[in-house]
Amino acid sequence: QNKGIIFDLDGVIVDTAKYHFLAWKNLAESLDIHFNKKQNEQLKGVSRVESLKKILSWGKKSISEERFESLLHQKNKEYLGFVDQMDHSEILPGVLKRLKILKKEAYPIALGSASKNAKTILERVDLLSYFDAIVDGNEVSKAKPNPEVFIKAANLLGVEYQNCVVFEDSIAGIDAANNANMVSVGIGDQEVLQKANFIFKDFSQITDAHFNEILNTMKT
Ligand code: G6P
Ligand code: MG
């Protein structure tokens, strides 16, 4: 196959976006900063460091470097507490079925995530073996909407950028895919993910016909 399939992780493959939200919300509240679901959309796809910077800017707070580091640690600790309780059931609807089909049809498959916990989570839900390449928060220096993460994934797969499709639940991630000249598929809310080339509520809504349609928008 000369077409590459790239998945974001949080909110696309597994239902961890809700855990990131909870952990950030609790942390923000401990600083007397309050943010809503709409603001939370701006945290999706964004690295841990950048997320904390955003939250602090919403609360117009400035803190020492040590405090910043300790808050990052605190957030991740709470997040990993949720992850620890995870099992198979948190794989989002339709994802496993699609991964199986893609594997059978020998499509190159990559993960493109900002999370430093990506491998831990894939292992946890037993999906690691489906991925030919993994690019996560440990390997990228430029956060989405910079296309670096997807460019690296495509390079590892050995597939041309315009022959890759990216599945994303975040605004930053859709922008990153578009910036990389890849086909962007939004998973989630139509209102939020307007700039995606295609949008579905979740993978269970993507039929084989839809999937072929997505792949057929590529030139080769
Ligand atoms: C993903 C999530 C973000 C999260 C980021 C870093 O992009 O959508 O909400 O902040 O990864 O995750 P990490 O697990 O490294 O804190
Ligand atoms: Mg995501």
Q: List each distinct ligand once.
A: 6-O-phosphono-alpha-D-glucopyranose, magnesium ion
Distance between the termini: 11 Å
Largest sheet: 6 strands, parallel
Multimeric state: single chain
Strand content: 5-15%
In N-to-C order, the SSE pattern is EHHHHHEHEHEHEEH
Structural class: alpha/beta
Supply the number of helical segments.
9
The 3D shape can be described as globular
- The helix content is 40-55%
Report the mean per-residue pLDDT as an integer: 96
Strand order of the largest sheet: 3-2-1-4-5-6
- Uncertain segments of ≥5 residues (pLDDT<50)? none
Number of strands: 6
Radius of gyration: 17 Å
Site (Important for catalytic activity and assists the phosphoryl transfer reaction to Asp8 by balancing charge and orienting the reacting groups): 113, 144
Active site: 8 (nucleophile), 10 (proton donor/acceptor)
Keywords: Carbohydrate metabolism, Isomerase, Magnesium, Metal-binding, Phosphoprotein
GO molecular function: beta-phosphoglucomutase activity; magnesium ion binding
